[in-house]
Amino acid sequence: MKKRLKNLILPLTIISILFSGCGKKEEVVQEENKTPVEVQQMSVSSIKKELVYAGQVKPNDTVNVTSKLSGLVESVKYDVGDYVNEGDILFTLDKKDIQDQIKQLEASLKVSDASVASARTGLSQVSDGGQIESSRLSLQSGVDSSQKAVENSQKAVENSQKAVENSKIQLDNAKSTLDDTEKKYNDTKKLYDAGVVARSDFESIELAYNQSKNAYEQTQLAYEQTQLNFEQAQIAYDQAVEAYNNAQKSLDIFDNKTTSDNIETAQAGVNTALASRDSVLTQLQIAKSTLNDTSVKAPISGYISEKNISETNMVSAQSAPYTIVDMSKVTVEVNVSEKIINLIDIGESVDVVIPTIGNKTLTGVIKTISPSADSTNIYPVKIEIENSDSSIKSGMFAEIHFVESQSDNAFVVPRNTVLENDTDKYVFVVEDNKAVKKVVETGIDNGEDIQIVSGVTGGDNVIVNGQDYVIDGEEVKVINEEKSEEKENDNNAENGEPSSQQPSKEE
């Protein structure tokens, strides 16, 4: 018994000494036993809930450049990735055939001008009562000039016809060569597939076959061009014959009719000569326009995305030697559900994020909204984005953020601040250093923050950290100010300034 008392005396003495000298220590212990919490003072803020849809970036415009003419490529100006302005010449075609045609038509135009001048002279002489012989000489001169033009045109027709015949022979020869090399290619391929012929021998035969096929296609285009030249020469000849007949008719009328009759006829001759000249002039203008078409220009400004052309190749109106994309603006098409379709409008701005170029938020504008859903009950929506610095590339992945709900006059707290039980949603606020439970009604919930519609008022200190560890009415310790003070002390220490928190004497 004495031993047990002896054992208790020392601890009780120590405890007595501690309590007699450390009254303030009790207060510290009590303070440390309070649950630490962080609070947020309620004030008006904004919150929004977004729906995010994904899509791929596409150019604002894509144009396949085509040539109005078929022909041999003379020069190529740009390559893939190059930027071109609208009107820049992309490539040119061989001009020789068209230039020859223009020369023929210019010659025909001179003949037509002479016919017009002759017809007008005849009309003037008849109308003014000039000497008959002078009038007749003028008309005869027109006949002679027209006859000379007919002879020249006839020679041009004959030359064009010979060119057609020679081109046909070349075409037949090219076809015969193609048939031979094609048969040899087919036979060799069978042997090569059977393992009888070496690969190098087969590739040599294949190369010869491809070359003969290309040669045949080019010869065929040349043959078609000579046919066109022949037709144009025939037209020029017909026009020259017509001009000659008109000149001869004017002369015959002059010889066989009276002066009064000749006036009317001479006027008709002038009209006919003018009509013939206009016809030649129209053909000449068309030929010059066709000459302009040998220089194929960019229809829009943008970047070359595809190039299917090289010098000495043949192009046709059915091919697309270049593709140009306009990337000054880009579009993203997303498919939205009926949940959002009536919340968006054309012309409305939306936030866009393209992870490839960084997570900065861009601004897009809704350009089109489909009024009807597709078979999967979704609505296509097109978004336009400015791309003046060309940082956005076609094919990039883009996120479109549509606002489903928004409030700019709301009490907003982190989502986990609001707790729930079977019947209510509630938060804890600090009043007189105690945690007080308040039932609340919530509104917009975006997954990170949540709106409190009712249950708290402006100025309330809502517990936003530590709320899971308090009960209604429990005393708590707000540590927001301590954290701020610690942070300030850390900053002062980094700057070499004395700490604002001085140790106490008891410490």
Question: Can you lay out the helices and strands and say which pair or pack?
Answer:
Blueprint: H1 2-21, H2 23-32, E1 35-41, E2 44-65, E3 71-76, E4 83-84, E5 89-93, H3 96-128, H4 132-193, H5 199-256, H6 259-292, E6 295-297, E7 302-307, E8 314-315, E9 322-336, H7 338-341, E10 349-353, E11 361-369, E12 379-386, E13 397-414, E14 419-420, E15 425-431, E16 434-439, E17 441-445, E18 449-454, E19 461-465, E20 476-478, H8 480-494
Parallel strand pairs: 1-20
Antiparallel strand pairs: 1-19, 2-9, 2-13, 3-5, 3-8, 4-7, 5-6, 7-9, 9-12, 10-11, 10-13, 11-12, 13-18, 14-15, 15-16, 17-18
Helix pairs in contact: 3-4, 3-5, 3-6, 4-5, 5-6
CATH topology title of the largest domain: Helix Hairpins
The main sheet orders its strands as 2-9-12-11-10-13
Taking the alpha carbons of the first and last residues, their distance comes to 41 Å
Helical segment tally?
8
pLDDT under 50 segments (min length 5)?
1-24, 498-507
Q: In terms of structural class, how would the helical and strand content be classed?
A: alpha+beta
Query: Shape, please?
Result: elongated
Mean pLDDT across all amino acids: 83
Question: In the CATH classification, which architecture of the largest domain applies?
Answer: Orthogonal Bundle
What portion of residues belong to β-strands? 25-35%
Q: Order of helices and strands, N to C?
A: HHEEEEEHHHHEEEEHEEEEEEEEEEEH
Q: What is the total domain count? A: 4
CATH class of the largest domain, please? Mainly Alpha
**Main pleated-sheet profile:** 6 strands, antiparallel, barrel
Share of residues in helices: 40-55%
Overall strand count = 20
Radius of gyration: 48 Å
